[in-house]
Design a protein that fits this description.
- The structure holds 2 protein chains of 2 kinds.
- Chain A is α+β, with helices and mostly antiparallel strands.
- In chain A, 49% of the residues lie in helices and 18% in strands.
- Chain A has 23 helices and 24 strands.
- In chain A, the strands form 7 sheets. Chain A has a 5-stranded antiparallel beta sheet with strand order 10-9-13-12-11, sandwiched between helices. In chain A, strands 17-18-21-16-22 form a 5-stranded parallel beta sheet.
- The longest helix of chain A has 53 residues.
- Chain B is an alpha/beta fold.
- In chain B, 50% of the residues lie in helices and 20% in strands.
- In chain B, strands 2-1-3-4-5 form a 5-stranded parallel beta sheet, sandwiched between helices.
- The chains are: A alpha+beta, B alpha/beta.
- Chains A and B meet through strand 17, helix 13, helix 14 and helix 21 of A and helix 4, strand 5 and helix 5 of B.
Chain lengths: 772, 125
């Protein structure tokens, strides 16, 4: 039932009433008796109009949209008295949900009417109207029927209005909540979309997120925010810490690593939960959770990227070939693997049979190896063997095979390395070590005996030192310089060093630096090119070239002049030199072993040897003692040479002779001893000099050997001096005897006799024997 | 000085011999390895000019025999055709000059001068 009368309805009603008034007027005239009754009716009609007006006023209160329930109730209560018969003594009150809304003059009185206010059929309050006078005698005064129905109508109407307002409030609340929810979702969506940006860093995401927060809050202009992540802070522009704060922890993998904080920049209101409230609480939590998952995601992405990058580096950048096989087929290979086996790219290598990569000789062991790998528990094994490239070239390789699972099935991950060079080296080393082992056996026994080292004879402690040094020099590739007087066996030591070195199977090229004329030194060392092209049969290769990979033995190294030292130094340093007559550089990898009977340091001090040249050759010095300093070796040497020259038929040597040999100073060292012994064996005579002795010891008639030896020392020196003078004079005079005799101031006949004594005949020389 | 020229080509030996004689030295000639050894045993020489390619004994086999008889003898070898192997076989025995023919008078003169100088040095010591 509509309780809101429309103006049409009212008009219609008024018209009806007017019609009735007309009717009553006529009746009045017709029946004046009924006047009083008619008056009553008119009064009733007026009440009725009041009632309608009252209801209308209430309705219009409700129509005002922004009016609150309280305003409506207060308005309603104020409207009531004027609608009653005696407004001045009427007051009213609405009691609703414990609250009262009364007129200004409200006062409880006995004369009361009330009606319940029902909402959805439930009583939630009441509407009361009081008359402020004594209750009239007539019980049912003008209150009654009309006012009764009016109060009921108002109460009923209020019930509807409350229902409506409550519904409206509910709707507004819902709308508000929905708005908040949308804000929240927008905010979270914005954060999510940050992550989708390509190349964005975690730092940028956190900074952008913090900027998104204030606009999503109820009062953006007074809101600021901060995100703390692992000690790093991200803040909005106008950030300030205040007491009015909300915060939520950010958890990454269930561990608190940071927090989101939102501050209101105003004073905190007294009511604890101001405008912040529920929605914002849940939003900040949602942001914290989302940030936590973003951090997790970015970290795992980063970890994934890193592991991918690592994987790429590992597989693509390593020199080792990497391949994955399953059921005998190659599933994957890296570049190194592909190029190792001669495939253009990795995809070419994929799908090939693994066994096809193995050289025929190694197919069987490889398959056996694979079976063993599958059968036993070990996860990794190493296979060494010959492999074969796509173009059937064989090479040695070492493969590390590891059992793994690939797509749930067993597979083998293989890293493979070309070891051809080292394998060949290994084979060579094995051979060499076998060779060395045997050499060593010989050597050890000889060292143990301490009687000889190769061709060097001697058991003295000074010679033991020489042997040690030879071994050390053999183990190195550094330059060796051998010091020793003439005849001490420098060449033997040089040969021993060469034989003990890893150049033993290459050449030892000896050069007697003193024997070569200066003018020819350069071409003898560096070679000489006569033709237009090097290597022609008219070219001399020279010592350096011949010594390539071998040893260059520079005997009498002190004889090299400064000019030659410079040229050799250059060749020593980088192995490069140019043959005479050609500018094309040749190279030679030679080792230097030099020897001298001079004190080279004196040469340096005198400016005869360059200091740099000296230090270049003087790296490992080996000094051979003169024979006079190791006389205990003389019996050993005698024994050695007797056996060498005469087997076991050597004549015996008496104790005195042996003593003489041991007491002699041996200026010509071992070579002099060797020659003396050689002559003794062939001529049965013992002498200490060259082929034409003036005095010799006739062993059969040796009367006083001691005296002979003493005399010999002096006579030997005089004789040598004299003979050299004679030869020099003859040389200078083109062997003209008279002229030579005159140059020495000697009578002709004396000179001739001396020539004869020295075994010099006309135009004939004796060999020059020099013992320096 | 006394020089032995060993060459199976008599004209070469003659030419070299006369060059050395002009320098004031005594020269003997041999046309084979065997002949050279015989001469070397009979006499002592300061220098041997040795053709490597002799019909009987190779030059590089002769050098050690010469040196055994006379360790200080100077040796200059001569060859018309060279190879690395040949050169090493010769040089390992120690020669004063490894000469590739044709004959080099200046080089030979420097060899002779060198020997005299050495002898002089030894005498003056």
């Amino acid at each position: 039932m509509s309780i809101t009368p429309t103006s049409d309805q009212l008009e219609k009603r008024v018209k009806e009433l007017e019609a009735r008034v007309e009717h009553f007027k006529r009746a009045e005239t017709v029946c004046p008796k009924n006047e009083k009754a008619m008056q009553a009716i008119v009064n009733a009609m007026g009440e009725r109009v009041k009632e309608l007006n009252c209801l209308y006023s209430i309705s219009s209160l409700v129509e005002k949209h922004d009016s609150t329930l309280e305003e409506i109730l207060q308005g309603t209560v104020n409207i009531i008295p004027p609608s009653w018969q005696y407004p001045e003594i009427t007051c009213s009150r609405i009691v609703l949900e414990g609250r009262e809304y009364g007129t200004d003059n409200f006062k409880k009185a006995n004369w009361k009417q009330s009606s319940d206010i029902l909402v959805h059929g439930m009583r939630i309050g009441s509407l009361e109207v009081y008359y402020l006078k004594e209750m009239p005698e007539i019980d049912e005064g003008p209150f009654l029927k009309e006012e009764r129905s009016l109060i009921n109508a108002i109460a009923e109407r209020l019930g509807k209005v409350i229902e409506r307002i409550k519904a409206r409030n509910e709707l507004q609340k819902k709308n508000y909540e929905l708005g908040e929810r949308i804000k929240e979702l927008n905010c979270l969506y914005n954060i999510s979309s940050l992550v989708e940006k390509q190349g964005i860093t975690l730092e940028e995401i956190l900074q952008d997120t913090v900027n998104i927060i204030p606009p999503s809050w109820q009062y953006p202009e007074i809101t600021c925010a901060r995100i703390i992540m692992e000690g790093q802070e991200y803040k909005t522009k106008k950030f300030k810490e205040t007491d009015w704060v909300q915060s939520s922890d950010i958890n990454v993998h269930d561990e608190t690593t940071g927090a989101v904080e939102v501050y209101y920049l105003k004073e905190k209101p007294e009511i604890d939960e101001g405008p912040f409230l529920k929605e914002e609480r849940s939003l900040i939590n949602a942001i914290a959770i989302q940030l936590g998952s973003i951090v997790e995601r970015i970290r795992s992405e980063r970890a994934l990227q890193e592991s991918e990058a690592r994987y790429k580096i590992l597989t693509e950048q390593v020199a080792d070939g990497v391949a994955l096989y399953q059921e005998g087929l190659c599933l994957f290979a890296n570049n190194a693997f592909a190029s190792m086996f001669g495939y253009e790219n990795t995809s070419r290598a994929e799908g090939i049979k693994v066994v096809d990569l193995i050289s025929n000789d190694f197919k069987k062991p490889f398959l056996k190896f694979h079976e063993d790998l599958e059968a036993d528990g070990s996860s990794e094994r190493i296979f060494q063997g010959k492999y074969m490239t796509n173009d059937r070239r064989e090479f040695w390789a070492e493969a590390h095979l590891a059992k793994i699972k690939w797509n749930g099935r067993p597979a083998v991950l293989s890293t493979i390395r070309d070891i051809t060079a080292s394998k060949l080296k290994e084979i060579e080393i094995k051979k060499e070590s076998e060779h060395l082992r045997q050499e060593n056996i010989k050597l050890r026994s000889s060292i143990k005996e301490r009687f000889r080292f190769g061709d060097i004879i001697g058991k003295s402690s000074s010679m033991q030192e020489v042997y040690e040094l030879i071994l050390k020099a053999g183990a190195s590739d550094a330059s060796v310089i051998i010091y020793g007087e003439s005849g001490t066996g420098k060449e033997l030591v040089a040969h021993a060093v060469h034989k003990m070195s890893n150049r033993a199977d290459k050449k030892l090229v000896p050069i007697n630096c003193g024997a070569i004329p200066e003018m020819l030194l350069e071409r003898e060392f560096f070679g000489h090119v006569k033709g237009a092209f090097t290597g022609a049969d008219k070219d001399a290769h020279g010592y350096l070239d011949l010594a390539d990979h071998g040893t260059l033995f520079l005997d009498e190294v002190g004889e090299l002049d400064l000019n030659m030292q410079v040229k050799l130094l250059r060749a020593f340093d980088n192995g490069c030199f140019s043959p005479v007559g050609n500018n094309r550089t040749r190279t030679s990898a030679f080792r230097i072993v030099a020897a001298t009977n001079k004190k080279l340091m004196d040469f340096v001090n005198k400016g005869l040897m360059r200091e740099d040249f000296f230090y270049r050759i003087n790296v490992i010095p080996i000094s051979i003692p003169p024979l006079r300093d190791r006389k205990e070796d003389i019996p050993l040497l005698i024994d050695h040479y007797f056996k060498k020259y005469n087997g076991n038929n050597a004549p015996s040597i008496s104790g005195k002779i042996m003593e003489a040999l041991q007491n002699y100073n041996w200026p010509g060292n071992v070579r002099q001893l060797q020659n003396a012994l050689h002559r003794y064996i062939t001529l049965k005579k013992l002498d200490f000099i060259g082929t034409a002795p003036s005095r010799s010891i006739e062993l059969d008639s040796a009367a006083d050997e001691e005296a002979i030896v003493e005399i010999f020392e002096f006579q030997h020196a005089v004789r040598k001096f004299e003979k050299n003078l004679v030869i020099k004079a003859l040389d200078q005079n083109q062997w003209h005897r008279e002229k030579a005799a005159a140059s020495l101031g000697l009578p002709r006949r004396t000179f001739f006799r001396k020539m004869k004594n020295f075994g010099l005949t006309s135009a004939q020389t004796v060999p020059f024997v020099a013992h320096s | 000085m006394k020089v032995l020229v060993v060459d199976d080509d008599a004209s070469v030996a003659g030419f070299i011999g006369s060059f050395i004689e002009k320098l004031g030295h005594y020269v003997e000639k041999a046309s084979s390895g065997q002949e050279a050894l015989t001469r070397f045993k009979e006499n002592t020489f300061d220098l041997v000019l040795l053709d490597i390619c002799l019909p009987d004994i190779k030059g590089y086999e002769l050098i050690p025999q010469f040196k055994k008889l006379h360790p200080d003898v100077g040796v200059v070898t001569m060859t018309g055709y060279n190879s690395r192997d040949l050169e090493f076989k010769v040089r390992k025995h120690g020669v004063m000059y490894y000469m590739i023919k044709p004959f080099e008078p200046d080089s030979l003169k420097s060899v002779l001068d060198h020997i005299s100088k050495k002898r002089f040095q030894h005498v003056t010591i």
